[in-house]
Amino acid sequence: MQKKIIDELRDMPKFVYVLAMLVAFGGAVGIYRLYAGLGATTNLSKAYPWGIWISFDLSTVALSGGAFTLAALVYVFHMHNLHAAVRPTVLAGLLGYTSVLIILFMDLGRWDRAYHFLIYPNLNSALFEVSWCIALYSSILVYELSPVLLQNTKWKGAIPVLEKYTVPMVIAGVSLSTLHQSSLGTLFIVMSARLHPLWHSMLLPIFFLISSLASGLALIIAGATVSRWVFKRSLPQKLIAKLGWFLPWILGVYLVLKLGELEVTDELHYLFTSGKYSVLFISELVFGMIIPIIMFSRKEVRHSRNASMIGAFFVMAGVVLNRFNASWFAIQPLQGVEAYKPHWMEVAILVGVASGVFLAYTLIGRYFPLFDETIKIDEPKHAPKLIAATE
Amino acid sequence: MTNLTISRRNFLKMSGAAVGALVVGQMLPAPIAKAAQEAGLLDENMTGYVTSMCEMCVWRCGLRAKIVEGRVVKLDGNPDHPHSRGKLCPRGQSGLMNTYDPDRVLTPLIRVGKRGEGKFRPASWDEALDLVASKMMAIKEKYGSEAMVFSSTHNLSQLQFENLLNAFGSPNYGTQRSLCFNAMIVGNLMTYGMEEPARDYSDTEYIILTGRNLVEAVSTSETGDLMAAIHRGAKMVYLDPRFTRTASKADLWLPIRPGTDLAFHLALLHVIIEEKLYDHDFVANHTVGFDKLVATVAPYTPEWAAAITELKATDIETVAREFAAAGNKALAHNGWRTSNFENSFQTARAIASLNALVGNWGTTLLPASGGHGGGALGLPPQPPYPRASATRLDGVPWKYPLVPFKLGVFQELRNAIISGKPYQAHGWFISRQNPVQSLPDRTRTLEAMGKMDFIVTVDIFLNDTAWFSDVVLPEASYLERYDPLHQIGNRVFIRQPVIEPQGDAKSALWIYKQLGERLGLGDYFQYIDEEDFIRQQLAPVGASLEELRKKGYLDLEEHEGEVDLFHWNTSSGKVELFSDVLDGAGFAPTAAWQEPPMPENGRFYLLTGKIAQHTQFATQNNQLLHKYQDEPRLWMNPKAAENLRLADNDIVRVTSDVGEVNIALNVTEAIRPDCVYMTPGFGHISKGFTTGYGVGASDSVLHVTYTDPISGGQALSQTFVTVQGI
Amino acid sequence: MSTHTTNGKYGFLIDVTHCIDCRACNVACSVQNEVSMDSTRIWMNGTGVVGKYPDLQSFTAPFHCMHCNDPSCASACTVGALTRDHDGIVRYDEDRCIGCRYCIYACPFQVPNMDLNETMPLIVKCDMCGDRLDEGEQPACAATCPPGAIQFGRREDMLAEANRLINENPGKYIHHIYGEHENGGTSTFYISPVPFEELGFPIPGATSSAYYNRLVTHGTPAVFGAAAVSLSGIYLTIKNVQEETAEEARAAVIRSAQAAESARAAERAAATEEEA
Ligand SMILES: Nc1nc2c(c(=O)[nH]1)N[C@H]1C(S)=C(S)[C@@H](COP(=O)(O)OP(=O)(O)OC[C@H]3O[C@@H](n4cnc5c(=O)[nH]c(N)nc54)[C@H](O)[C@@H]3O)O[C@H]1N2
Ligand SMILES: Nc1nc2c(c(=O)[nH]1)N[C@H]1C(S)=C(S)[C@@H](COP(=O)(O)OP(=O)(O)OC[C@H]3O[C@@H](n4cnc5c(=O)[nH]c(N)nc54)[C@H](O)[C@@H]3O)O[C@H]1N2
Ligand code: SF4
Ligand code: SF4
Ligand code: SF4
Ligand code: SF4
Ligand code: SF4
Ligand SMILES: [Mo]
After folding, report:
1. Per-residue pLDDT reduced to its tens digit, C158-197
2. In the 8-state DSSP scheme, what is residue B500?
3. How far is C-alpha C42 from the chain's CA centre?
4. Which residues are CB-neighbours of A157 under 8 A, at least 6 positions away?
């Protein structure tokens, strides 16, 4: 037994150890943060009460949007040929949301009262909605993922029962996602005084929802290629191309709405007159929308693994930039206050949590039947010991 | 900067802890609280309100302290008190933080290390008092009473301090007065025969403030009165080389060249006389020497003054005409800390004369009312004082014939300690004063202390002076003790303890009595305790202490005797525009021009002046005030900074003839290009201040000692400095 | 702008021409409310010293919670720790707060403060000295202000006084009562000789951001319902269509099989006939 574990550990790729160390370090800093308070461990202030953590959370939720997008496509829209991507994407989603919850916990000044959001409702608060939705939706993701986790255990008999309710659960999950993805946009509506008008809009919830669809799809596309490198497993390119086909449409609507809204509210002039803010906004438009729209409109791109991966990265970068802008870069400074820059401990905790996500993904991929339905791409030299593969 | 700050959670807790420690430590029932309970001020939970008096500065606003379970949690102005009218200034508001300051000295301290090392050991009162008494007796026996110097700054128990030194027989008494208002007081004495006529703003239409930064150097009621007058539409003209908050409220700010206020006022006199705008009746009936004044000011034209003051002649003319037009509703403020230049006495005289010319006596300028402890109140019986054993070290009156004994010339006293002439002093008893900072030229003050065999300081903190003392006696703070009563007009106010004294702190009344007894002077301290002292004060007016405690004040019966408003206590009985006394002493008998020195090229006038958040050299350790103060930096005009290639926040070295300091620069338009300004009270030496230590720099290091021969006032703006980047 | 809120009972009137920047109000508030040394409920705003020597100007004013008629902070607060009471005082329940700091960003006046040096920090915000009001006293800041720059009383009286001062002193104040309409109306009014942006005051619009927030968050149940219903609908429609197509396909297969069968049968029959 011992020997088996040692062998197993020896067999582990090196980066797993690196990740584990980052997690351990981040964890230690995290505990210190809870003990020492926000002042000692972050550069947050009255002028910038939210920092890199919130930006990370917003980005992660948007990227994790892949899980609900795919679930909707497969189960609601009956595109069952995409089924192979469900498990890896749901796992990615679940890990994403878990990291969001951990970081949110870190961010709470009164983390000892984290449960208060469950028992003290403020129905006007977007953050209250978001908290509830994320909590519920995370549970649903656990549900959706449970077959993977149970398959090789003695409880595998429960799987058929669970699967019976998959569709209603998926519908609930997708609805919750619609809600919180958009509510994350709503969050900023009340912040009109601080958020630059290029971003502030009554359509923020719609923007956030649409962009989360795009970034979710992009994550599946990019993920398929990345997992090919890591696990030597992927989806058939035909499926990826199919997903890619949606992107120009979604991004097109997003682009038109964003610019249209500026036009209607008479804020289009900010586009070129706001200095740093103009650069940030135009970057979002060009790199996150226009370039990928052009790319994914072309068949060659959709059918090329590498090209669609690059396109997908553009989309994700655009959405992540959008989330960072809304919660950090485009928050207008207060007179006489230095702009926020994250403290190294904030970064360390973040890196720790992100490493945890990759670590968990790798290990689950290694020991659980995650890629059951995916296809094997070129024989690896050291075949990963996929337990599921021995079936 | 601040390493020991009190956080939200322990703000209350720590005051609680201090009280707890006391109760355990003393193993006694809390007598003050018990008395307060019996007087019906506190309930059985030691909760309620107690009225008393603020002593964060000398204005003495009435306060109402909120007590919860034996801790003072909030101070508010007493609505019935004429000095506060329900309001307290920032320092008054912060008072409980002074009392609960973790740096308070709460037990007598005896020095163990070298002087200035700051090493002390706690001692019992018996040991400390015995030591002080034996040292004082030894000095008296060996060198005579005069070898013992006493010094103290304006406070309610000063009465008993003076009692102690007079009974001891020393003529050497140093007060803050020569550093503060000697020029104004002597100027008024020479003109009106009284120290400081009162000002009434209720009817003013036109006010001239000469270096009286009344908006920042706050006296709650007077500052309020001034602001109310402005709100009502009164015009205010303000002379100051700095654009202070007072300047920002002025209709006309005149950034006058330092030391030339005299020229400005002489020109006002010139215009008013020339254009016959003065109150003929008043001048004819109630003044002497008008013709002499006319002759003196004849050459002082606005053009002449404009060249000296660097103001516009037209502005001077306008002010003169408008001031005169306002007639008896005009007021030229007689100033407070008027000791700026050696010519400041003449400025005070010119201002006093200006008021006389418009005949504002009885409307905006009134005879001063009340003093402390005087009037109808009684005092414990005591034998007459012995004759002073020698002439005074400070040169009053043999060198300074016109300076009243009461005022003295503190900086000259300090110099005489160093020179040992006319005789050597050996001991120094300091109470409620911080001469290491308040005297000019800190190096010399420390040198003087070095000459001493023995120094004892009574304070509530280990201030810079206590830091160099041999014994430190901790007084109870103003919220923890009784003081002698305070009378304003016909009303008598009480300072009474609102909480138990913390640690072993004791009232000055107690300390002086204990010392008096140990010095064999018990007959001069015939009271059992503080309450007994006050009861004896109250005896002649037939009032009870209990009643006074409850209300916080007491109205005395009006004196029926007619006071003649138009009789002055001068030799002529009139307002003296020309003074025989001055003439006799060989000084200019009417206000006359006296050229102030000017800095040579490359040097700046060094200005000092109060800020609203601090009192002198006493409150910089107060965590609340520290929190709300501006960072103390050296003000410099951008033009000057550009010339010196200095930028905002640069650390600069400021050098005078006697010292140098390093300080951060504040480049601001709010000052004349030929001046720099430092906030007094920073740059403490004492490490007994956790919050205040290491903050800012001390301007006392830079000040050169210059004394006006007439009033004895220290010329605090007459120091010139260079500034360079480092 | 229908923010359907009422005016508060109490109000402040702060006269900028009257404030001397002494900060007694700041100190008083810190003591009254045991506010830590590192954050505050009230602070000074001001123009700084403006102009070129010797033509200078400087104005200051204290700033604290405006007590909005429709408070943005309250609509943002995750757990309802900030609420507006029946007197119009926007209060903070420190036992509820989770320290998310959303209110700090939500308030258009940059009011809520937090002492992040506390290990378990809480929001620091003016509550109009509710405890003092209960005892029949003025708020600590207003009570102590030496020149009386802060007045406190009934909201309508304060507003009337502001109007009176402006009207009776032509040229002294600009024609704007800050706080009357800002963020949907508040209980704190300022009158000033200079435009409020010069004093460093935030300039929010006349409709509270809480109103816009509500427009969206009140739609939440509807969004959720619509999503669930339409997703179910899509699921069922596609399922039906697919089932129907499958059914049809099966029927077609069966039909063709039957046809083939009958054809074969016919063939067989024919063959047998031939054999016969
Ligand atoms: N907040 C606060 N209030 C106080 C005190 C305190 O410490 N703090 N102290 C109290 C005491 S003891 C006193 S004496 C008074 C003092 O109060 P004030 O009489 O106002 O005296 P300062 O503040 O010392 O100085 C006032 C101004 O004089 C200016 N000045 C310097 N030289 C000249 C000059 O040659 N001509 C003119 N025209 N102006 C000049 C300085 O720039 C400064 O702004 O304040 C009392 N009130
Ligand atoms: N550079 C410079 N020098 C100046 C001035 C200036 O503006 N600049 N101003 C001048 C003027 S106007 C004046 S009036 C003088 C003032 O000069 P000082 O009187 O020497 O100075 P204060 O700071 O008033 O000293 C008061 C002392 O009393 C202590 N104290 C406070 N409360 C109590 C108490 O309850 N009991 C006892 N026993 N002690 C207590 C304080 O800790 C402090 O040490 O300074 C003058 N010198
Ligand atoms: S003016 Fe301020 S410090 Fe002085 S007595 Fe009054 S409240 Fe106290
Ligand atoms: S000013 Fe800010 S904190 Fe105060 S009630 Fe309005 S939104 Fe809330
Ligand atoms: S920090 Fe506290 S008061 Fe502010 S929004 Fe969050 S929970 Fe509410
Ligand atoms: S009303 Fe009370 S809590 Fe609000 S700022 Fe004034 S003193 Fe502070
Ligand atoms: S107390 Fe009054 S005068 Fe002083 S800063 Fe506050 S508002 Fe201004
Ligand atoms: Mo003074």
Report:
1. 999 999 999 999 999 999 999 999 999 999 999 999 999 9
2. P
3. 20
4. none
User: What is the per-residue pLDDT across C88-111, written as a single tens digit (0 to 9) for each?
Assistant: 999 999 999 999 999 999 999 999
Q: Which residues of B touch C32 (CB under 8 A)?
A: 74
pLDDT of residue C99: 96
Task: State the pLDDT at residue A89.
Answer: 87
Q: In this predicted structure, what is the pLDDT of residue B200?
A: 96
**Nearest residue of B to residue C147 by CA position?**
B224
Chain B neighbors of C28, CB-CB under 8 A: 88, 93
Interatomic CA distance for residues B714 and B411, integer angstroms: 7
Q: Whole-prediction pTM value?
A: 0.92
Residues that place a CB less than 5 A from ion ligand 8 = B 180, 337
Give the residue extent of every domain in chain C. 10-207, 209-276
Residue C60, strand partner residues: C46
Domain residue extents for chain B: 2-99, 109-180+374-555, 197-367, 604-725
Q: What is the pLDDT of residues B511-538, one digit of tens each?
A: 999 999 999 999 999 999 999 999 999 9
Q: Is C99 on the interface with A (CB under 8 A)?
A: yes
Q: Of all atoms in ligand 1, which is nearest to the CA of residue B89? A: 1
**CATH 1.10.10.60 is held by the domain A14-332+341-390:** no
Nearest by Cα to B576 from B191, B8, B241, B302: B191
**B91 in contact with ligand 3, CB cutoff 6 A:** yes
Closest residue to B87, CB basis, from C23, C38, C145: C145
Q: Is the shortest distance between the CB of B56 and ligand 3 below 6 Å?
A: yes
* Domain layout of chain A by residue ranges: 14-332+341-390
Fold of the domain spanning B109-180+374-555: Rossmann fold (3.40.50)
Q: Which of C122, C212, C238 sits opposite A189 (nearest CB)?
A: C212
B305 pLDDT more than 90: yes
Mean pLDDT, all residues of chain B = 93
Nearest in space to C153 (alpha carbons), one of C8, C6, C10: C10
By the 8 A CB rule, do B138 and B537 touch? no
State the Cα–Cα distance between residues B364 and B362, nearest whole angstrom: 6
Using a CB–CB cutoff of 8 Å, tell me whether A3 touches chain C: no
Q: Does domain B197-367 have CATH number 3.40.50.620?
A: no
**Residue C215 to residue A202, Cβ atoms within 8 A:** yes
Spell out a b/e string for B652-688, using b for 16 or more CB atoms within 10 Å of the CB, else e: bebbbebbebebebbbbbbbbbbbbbbbbbbbbbbeb
Domain C10-207: which topology? Alpha-Beta Plaits (3.30.70)
- Answer yes or no: is the C-beta of B99 below 6 A from any ligand 2 atom: no
Tokens representing residue C268 in the block: 């067989």
DSSP string over B567-614: --SSTTSSEESS-HHHHHTTS-SS----PPP-PPTT-EEEEE---TT-
pLDDT-derived band at B561 (thresholds 50, 70, 90) equals low
Distance from Cα B163 to the centre of ligand 2, integer Å = 21
Minimal Cα–Cα distance from B10 to chain C, Å?
Answer: 9
How many other CB atoms are found less than 10 A from the CB of residue A353? Answer: 25
pLDDT of residue B562: 62
Quote the DSSP letter at residue B235: E
Structure confidence at residue B5 (pLDDT):
41
